[in-house]
Amino acid sequence: MPVRYNKYKEMPLQLCPGCKLDDQPGSCEIRDCVKSKGLNHCGACREFPCDKITKFNNDGVPHHSEVLKNLRQLEEIGEDRWLELQEEKWRCECDAKISWYVKKCLKCGKPIKTNY
Ligand SMILES: [Zn+2]
């Protein structure tokens, strides 16, 4: 049974500050693995998609569920273009930034279409 988002919502934020922010070795096996290989992200790894990243993608947490897709796309189109697409994806028509789990724009109130 997939883990429900509400369970994660109650966890302390410091559980995972994100791949680029947490520099503590041992706090994330995926991050440690990527760093040990001298890579910038998993998509560049010869073993991609390995069990570790596949399990993470499929762990039931909504914002983990696009990891494999994103890493493939990142490798395919390059970091600059990928970041441009993310900028577009995570912006409301009114230009306000939007994020995971937000059901409507905090600025204009327009409902946010989610794809998970
Ligand atoms: Zn808006």
UniProtKB/TrEMBL annotation:
Pfam families: DUF3795 (PF12675). This is DUF3795 domain-containing protein. It comes from candidate division TA06 bacterium DG_78. The lineage of its organism: Bacteria, Bacteria division TA06.
